[in-house]
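Students often ask why we bother predicting the structure of a whole assembly rather than each chain alone. The short answer is interfaces. A chain on its own may look different once its partners are present, and contacts between molecules only exist in the joint model. In this exercise we take two input lines together and write out one structure for the complete complex. Read the inputs first and try to guess which parts will touch.
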Amino acid sequence: MTMTVAFCSWCGKSSAEGSHSVCTQRLSMIDPPRYCPECARRMVVQVSPAGWTAKCSRHGETTSPAITG
Amino acid sequence: MTVAPEQVDVLATAREQVLERGEGLTESQILEVLELPEDRLEELLELAHDVRMRWCGPAVEVEGIVSVKTGGCPEDCHFCSQSGLFPTPVRAAWLDIPGLVKACEQTVASGATEFCIVAAVRGPDKRLLSQVRAGIKAIRDAGMDINIATSLGMLTQDQVDELVDMGCHRYNHNLETAKSHFPNVVTTHSWEERWSTLTMVRDAGMEVCCGGIIGMGETLAQRAEFATQLASLNPHEVPMNFLTPNPGTPYENYPVVEGAEALKTVAAFRLAMPKTMLRFAGGRELTFGDLGTKQGMLGGINAIIVGNYLTNLGRPASQDLDMLTELSMPIKALNETL
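Now the answer. The structure tokens for the assembled complex follow.
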């Protein structure tokens, strides 16, 4: 199943509109995703020392590569 | 003709007062250090490093932290993305016991000797204390040999006693900033209320961990004031955070503290507290980057949070551990005193 990336997971706005360079930088450095990329709902995020999990009430849970791996 | 009194260089004074005698700088001396021009930064960092090595030694305490209760906090700490009073993207969450044990396992795997359980609350209620008690028991039952610290907001004496009974050896409660600046940062409780919790913790025999955040609009004089106030508390550990401007908070548009200024602050805090554990905590990734982190370790820091923070991510623990190896700084052994 391919996930639709319609929204920015840092700011929650449409991925197609505006610049998301700050969002991309923050996501690559210090922030886990906060908004569901499919529906822009705020997700319940749990950060742990080695990773994070982010849960959307509609689209389920995403886990950081560090934990998955 | 009037001859101006000879100006004594503050670093020369610090060399004798702090390095040789182990006496921290006074507030006015700390301010002088903070006002030093950038071309003296290298000299300052070298001195701070010498002080750390002389009075604390080469070992570095490594710690992991986790949030057991995230978001929905009733307090209005303006820097915090977990306040329920600001429109931040952080949603409330509780970590269950298996999740807490797993977080501790991740911390142990990194070689850390300290694991801090943190909650975003004004103070703990019965449910939270019960969760922490069960979490500590589960960690012990799993056979993990690691010191456990907690950070659960403001405490009553009964709660302090309960934490001691649970085996919590250190309690974190940050004063966050200078007393004179605190009302600009938090309005829902006072600096004095925080101080009261810290004295109860200390009197109960737990180690006191108390620091704050640099870059919240405080002046250099207020940074010096803050360092002096921390020194007067004589905490076991001072975590130094640098503001991460988080979206939705009143400080979301504040600038990130510039690296050289942050390094100078670290060194000044070391000269204010020569024998205290100074820990690199949140915000260092944005403020320092990789190079600055190493400079900080060579400029007074002797403890570090590895891995992720409470709501933000850190760099991989392995990267910090490799850095410590490169710097020939051994990780502090369990129960060793720095």
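Check your guess against this: Chain A touches chain B through 20 residues (CB under 8 Å).
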